[in-house]
Specification:
Order of helices and strands: HHHHHHHHHHHHH
Strand content: under 5%
Helix content: 40-55%
Structural class: mainly alpha
Radius of gyration: 18 Å
Number of helices: 13
């Protein structure tokens, strides 16, 4: 079993990803407040039925960091899943929140590795779409501030969305106010959705992702500035990011 659950206090000595020390400058990944997962206007998490106790925020943060540290080093899928399960279902929302939080100052290859582990949690640990959407929706409120100091934040969040099997029909719900704000020339939701789509292609292939987009009637333009939604503008934007093959109607 991972050191994350065997010894909460032990830190990984060989962690290669540049972590943030709050006493120094640089990106400051936020700490989740105790009440952060209980806002009444957020997607409701699935009802819990296990008897595990609810862990305090500091404990979940230590466990999440330990899980990620161990997984990027050892790459043992089964251990990552078992370690997450031992949090107990009552802590699944907070666990997802903190794992995503922990990705924000990681190297790209580490995020890709952890995304692989997150993808296993649906079947391996019973992490439902409702749980994933609720945790990600809570985290998205912090994303723009994090992105100011962490250039990969939008990309990493989008990868996590895909890895956690957020369906195309619930992307806007997951992004919440980030999706609703389309006033800027390049709304913040756009790079998140692009990263989400790219990771879907990585997981399922281009042909299957294109079929899923068509079946879900996924409207990519809902995330664009209202003045940038003409066919020509959409075609240009998608072509610049190599996503045009997913949307043949604009080709």
């Amino acid at each position: 079993m991972f050191d994350a659950l065997m010894n909460d206090e032990e830190e990984s000595a060989n962690h290669a990803s540049p972590r943030v020390d709050p006493s120094r400058g640089g990106p400051k990944v936020p700490v989740m407040p105790e009440s952060a997962m209980s806002s009444s206007n957020k997607p409701a998490p699935a009802e819990k039925t296990d008897d595990a106790k609810q862990l305090d925020t500091a404990t979940i943060q230590r466990k999440a960091k330990g899980m990620v540290d161990e997984y990027v080093q050892l790459k043992i899928d089964s251990e990552f899943v078992e370690c997450f399960k031992e949090l107990g279902e009552v802590n699944y929302n907070a666990g997802i929140f903190e794992i995503v939080n922990n990705l924000m100052d990681r190297r790209v290859e580490h995020v890709e590795q952890v995304a692989k582990g997150l993808a296993l949690l649906k079947d391996g640990a019973g992490v439902s779409v409702d749980i994933a959407v609720a945790a990600l929706n809570e985290y998205v409120e912090l994303l723009e501030d994090i992105a100011l100091d962490t250039p990969g934040a939008f990309r990493f969040y989008g990868m996590a969305m895909a890895a956690l099997h957020v369906p195309l029909g619930r992307v806007a719900e997951t992004l919440g106010e980030l999706a609703a704000d389309v006033s800027s020339v390049q709304p913040s939701a756009v790079p998140v959705v692009y990263a989400y789509l790219r990771h879907l292609v990585r997981m399922h292939g281009e042909e299957q992702t294109r079929k899923d987009i068509e079946e879900a009637q996924f409207d990519i333009t809902q995330f664009f500035n209202k003045d940038k939604r003409s066919d020509a503008e959409v075609r240009r934007a998608l072509n610049l990011d190599d996503l045009l093959p997913l949307f043949p109607k604009y080709a």
